[in-house]
Amino acid sequence: MNSPWPVAMIDPHIHQWDPYTTPRHTTRKARLFRPLPQIPRALRWTAPRSDREFIGHPHHAMKPYLPSDYQRDAGQLPVTSVVHIEAAWQASGHLGGVGETRWVAALPFGQDGFPQLGAIVVHADPRWEDAGDVLDAHIAVSPLVRGVRFSASNHPDPAVRDFCSRPGVLCDPSFLRGFAALADRNLSFEMWLYSHQLPDAVVLAREYPQTTFVLDHYATPVGLFGPRGSHTGTTVRDRSSLFAQWRDDIAALAQLPNVVAKHSGLGMPLLGGDPRRPIDVAQLPKVVDRSAPLIRHLHDSFGSDRTMWASNYPIDKPVHTIAASARVLLEVLGGDAHPQKLFHDVAERTYGAVSGPEQQ
């Protein structure tokens, strides 16, 4: 039976962490519970609602997630290269985040059968006066630094977790001016925001037409699959309106040729729904039914030359397996999927991510 996958796959969106030895939001609790054989299930209810609805159960965020863990989760998928996306490294000072780049670059990717580290996307805030110096420091640590992510996610529902204190930061004059530090270094920009912020993304991407912008996680339409926060996605009418606005705004963003998009984040609890255990390939109809409108519209808007699969692991781990995240795209797109582009070529072009053993 022929494999549906390319000979080599690139996963352009993974996170690595070790809360025991590196500075993370969960480090204090992780160290406290480390002697226990497993994280108590009841711990979930000690976290704020906004955190629970972002991460699901915190147990996987409180334990290390390293190359060996990713390899095990990828299973039989021929993933030969990954792109590491910054994962909220907690360190003082703007240069503190360089420690994450140094740490990721030293992980045993490419050894013992693990995928290669194809590229690194770092954290920086274009509003920093020293943003250029910070980026140069990251690049000096590793030549694999290819892009920047600044999480602009800010939601009007106070019970939905914010990752940025300002709702319109992408249009802020200081952000737009400072963004030149990224553009001058030919770095891509990873956009993770909530769906109502998509018009802001249009403003930014239009301002810098020579920069490649990468839209993460379908712009996370919070509550699309079920209620979230205090009043988001509460009714069928609310969810229908949310989808209609998302659809129009995605189409508008896709008009800009310097924007590409990831089929990723379909397992993020923020979308709504609360499966009791991760969905695997055998349960694909559940994923297809709820995800098909997002998948199809993103594909139809951006086309196969500007869309790529990504696992978003381990953030999506509580909801579905890596194999399910890839297979659902084939199920929904059928003959339009173009697997070589979807699982390899677009990521390789976007990040310059080498996907074979020739990488050093």
From TrEMBL:
<comment type="similarity">
    <text>Belongs to the metallo-dependent hydrolases superfamily.</text>
</comment>
<dbReference type="InterPro" id="IPR052350">
    <property type="entry name" value="Metallo-dep_Lactonases"/>
</dbReference>
<dbReference type="InterPro" id="IPR032466">
    <property type="entry name" value="Metal_Hydrolase"/>
</dbReference>
<feature type="domain" description="Amidohydrolase-related">
    <location>
        <begin position="10"/>
        <end position="352"/>
    </location>
</feature>
<protein>
    <recommendedName>
        <fullName>Amidohydrolase-related domain-containing protein</fullName>
    </recommendedName>
</protein>
<dbReference type="GO" id="GO:0016787">
    <property type="term" value="F:hydrolase activity"/>
</dbReference>
<dbReference type="InterPro" id="IPR006680">
    <property type="entry name" value="Amidohydro-rel"/>
</dbReference>
<dbReference type="Pfam" id="PF04909">
    <property type="entry name" value="Amidohydro_2"/>
</dbReference>
